[in-house]
Amino acid sequence: MISVEEALERILTEITSLNTIQVPLNEALGMVLAQDVIAQEDIPPFANSSMDGFALLSKDSKPQGDKTPRLRVTGGVAAGYLADHALEPGTAMRITTGAPVPPGADAVIQVELTRSDGRDSDWVEILQAVHPGNNIRLAGEDMRRGQTVLTRGTEIRAWEIGILATLGWAIVPVVRRARVAIVGTGDEVIDIDQPLKAGKIRDSNSYLLEGAIRTAGAEAYRLGIAHDTVESLHEKFDEARQYDLIITSGGVSVGDFDLVKDIMAEKGHVNFWRINMRPGKPVAFGHIGGIPLLGLPGNPVSSAVTFELFGHPLIRKLQGYNRLHKPQIEVIVANGILNQAMRRHYVRAHVVWQNDHFVAHTTGNQGSHVMSSLLNANALVIVPEESGEVHPGDKVKAIMLNWPEE
Ligand code: AMP
Ligand code: MG
């Protein structure tokens, strides 16, 4: 049995990012940049005014004795256009927000700090002295030509889309989405639209995993349930060859019918098949014919939890993300937890902010078959291997499942 950390490391060293595709910017939302983005121009591209007002020379704004300076207005410059003449000392030019600062001017004074004879006034009085650079946004002040603005592996959110647009990236290189095959196993498992017969249970895992895979940003394909026979499993795995990753549930423990790892050993390689944790000791990882295979336990809670711990970062690495892991925070546990197994225990909990602390309320019976313990859970409280008991009020770490990866 290996530790959770070792399992994760073994998985991630085997996984490399998928190939790059080019997509129009508006389709890049939620995808991952496949290459660094270097600014090809200064942003802003030219010095411009941050206010509606008058462009002038700052030294002309200083009062002479107690006389308010009065300047001749020689014209104007609007956003989108260039001034048709340079600014002369002792004069001013009307300017709007975003308009290029006319040559010769070193400051802009906002209209509220001036007095004039209306829109077409040929004079303006300056009611307050301004410093050089006042209300001027310099070229390259935001981003410099040649600067690496975004690095590969960055997730493209709405804000990154805005930055890519400003830099002129109409087409964006992104890592394509992973296509993940889901294979359920077990003679007792039937599809959810079939009538329940004696001894049978519905396939909850394939559907839960489909949702979890899509939440991780990949495309999920349910291939149905393989029977507990070598032939049936071979058939499913043959079908799964065209995918980037195979995720199975069930069939990886030590029971007679646990054939997934035998087939992996025969047709590929088993990297590991047991982890020192609860729920979910029987997790297998390796490949079949070069396609990575993550074999999750059959118990629904085990398969849900182990997907979060191993499947989620695996898929993110496939898809090129540089942030793979959900954040861990320190929480105070509201209820006691027993851990007699000497295995790392991941306890489903609802974490809330209470009296200036994050407080974890565990979600009832933590049996690996008890699906209702997933309800309302937004965190996994980590009980270390060596700690037999956690008391109410103790501080422990928790993985925040709904927080963005860091
Ligand atoms: P296994 O890992 O195959 O020994 O399965 C462990 C437990 O998980 C058994 O009680 C199975 O009936 C149950 N199980 C296996 N596959 C599924 C599934 N797709 N949906 C719900 N429960 C399952
Ligand atoms: Mg089974």
Q: Care to describe what's here?
A:
The protein has 406 residues and is of the alpha+beta class. Helix content is 17%, strand content 32%. The protein contains 6 helices and 29 strands. The protein has helices at residues 4-14, 158-166, 204-215, 230-239, 260-267, 300-318; strands at 20-24, 32-33, 37-38, 48-49, 53-56, 70-77, 91-95, 107-110, 114-116, 123-126, 136-137, 148-150, 171-175, 179-185, 189-190, 201-202, 219-226, 245-249, 268-272, 277-278, 284-288, 291-296, 328-333, 337-338, 344-354, 357-362, 379-383, 389-390, 395-400. The strands form 8 sheets. A 6-stranded mixed beta sheet has the order 8-5-7-6-10-9, with no helix packed on it. The protein has a 6-stranded mixed beta sheet with strand order 17-14-18-22-21-19, sandwiched between helices. α1 crosses α6 and α3 runs parallel beside α6 (300-318). It is elongated. It starts with a helix and ends in a 6-residue tail after the last strand. 38% of the residues are buried. The model has no long low-confidence stretch (mean pLDDT 96). The site of adenosine monophosphate has 19 residues, from β14 and α3.
